[in-house]
Structure formats: structure tokens, C-alpha cells
Amino acid sequence: MMFKRGLHAFTLVELLVVCSVISILASLLLPALQRAMTSARTIKCASNLKQMGVFEQFYIDQNAGSFQQIKIGGGSPTWRDPIIEIAFDDSRYVDEGDVKNIRDHIFRCPEANFVTGSNSWNNLKVYGGNANLSAKKSSMFPKPSMTLFSLDASYASGNNAIATAYTDPTVWFRWRHGDENKLNIVWLDGHVGPYLIWDYTKVSMSQAFNPYYTP
User: Fold this and answer.
1) Is 215 within the bounds of a domain?
2) Range list of β-strands (E), the chain
3) Rounded to whole angstroms, what are the CA distances from 44 to 117, 175, 192?
4) How far is residue 190's CA from residue 187's CA, in Å, rounded to a whole number?
């Protein structure tokens, strides 16, 4: 004689135990996942700056060791033009209507908010360039490893060509990484490194903008 085994339903207590276990696991895993995603975005930003440095070096090598002319305040030429020229098949400018591609190319920091609509051109302004390099010979600089080329910057008017370090570090610079206490910089020798907000002083950043600085 065969007996059918009855179906066993979860009791309310068992369901509560399962829900509690899931909640505990989620509370343990989600912060770690968030940290991993934040770290990945910081690495992508550093990679963007590294590529900018490489493309800029290509431009310098092709132009007798000279940096491009930079117009401060707005208009062209901008510090981005040589990078665009080399990276985008010799096209001097990225069209404002090409917003769909701005999200993914090297001028787009993944930690920066993506702007749509009439202000979408500001998506190209999440990095700033050192205006003090304008039309100068790279061989003239004694410490390229201590002179910055580009860094995380604020949205700003004009072309984000930065000529000086302000007393208030939030005027031009954007501390997007590491719980908003760190920004990425690509230096003239091509290396990319973090710069911490508590290391900031007007003197130290002014030295980084000065291509003729000798410690």
C-alpha cells in the first residue's frame, strides 16, 4: 500500500527567518558592491586622463615638440583640440549634436553627472587643461612629472583652460572620487595619480600649474 507524501508549506516563522537571512546578506554585500563600482569609475576616469596624455604627446611629437595655442576664456583653439584631432580621425571639433557619444568617450568622467538638453555641451567640461602650456616647447620644462596637463574640473564657462590655482579649491577643481576628497591628474610625463583634498594648498597647486617650477 502506497502513501502519498503530503506537501509541506513554509511556516510564518520559517519565512521570516529566510527574509532575515536575505536582508543580512544584502546589507553585507551591497556596500562592497558599491565600493567596487565606485573604484571602477575612478579607474575609468584615470584611464581617460591617461589617454588624453598619450594623444597630447602624439600631437607634441608631430609639432616640433610644441604644445598647441590655447585661448583662455572661451572659443578656439582649446586645450582639447589636439586630442580631438588625433583621437577622432582628424576632426577638429566634436559636434554639439553628437551627445550620444559624449557619454562614452574620453572627455566624459563616469563620476560626473550627465547633462542633457541645451546644456549638453557641458559634458565636455568635466576635465580642465593647463593653460600655461600654451604654445610652449615641452623641452623647456624642468619637471614634467610635477607639472599637470589635465585634471578633474568643474563645469565652467569657456573652454575650461585653467591658468591659475584659486584659493578656494572648489572654484575650478572637482573632487569626485574617494568620498569626494580626491581628484585625478595626468601629468606632463604621462603618469596619472590621485590628488587628495587635504594635500591641497594654493602654493602646491600653483606649482603644479607652473611648467617652469623647480623644487
Assistant:
1) no
2) 127-130, 148-152, 161-162, 182-187, 192-196
3) 25, 15, 12
4) 5
What single letter denotes the amino acid at residue 54? V
Angle at 17 between CA 11 and CA 23, to 5 degrees: 140
Residue 144 belongs to a domain: yes
Domain membership flag for residue 109: yes
- Supply 94's cell numbers: 566634436
β-pair partners for 24:
none
Question: What DSSP character marks residue 11?
Answer: P
pLDDT tens across the length of the chain (215 residues) = 555 555 566 787 878 888 888 888 888 888 888 888 888 889 999 999 998 898 888 889 888 899 888 876 666 777 887 777 776 665 444 444 444 454 457 888 888 876 655 555 555 678 888 888 888 998 888 889 988 898 888 765 555 667 665 545 556 788 888 877 888 999 999 999 888 887 877 677 778 888 877 76
In whole angstroms, what is the distance from residue 96 CA to residue 93 CA?
9
Residues 88, 181: Cα–Cα separation, whole Å: 32
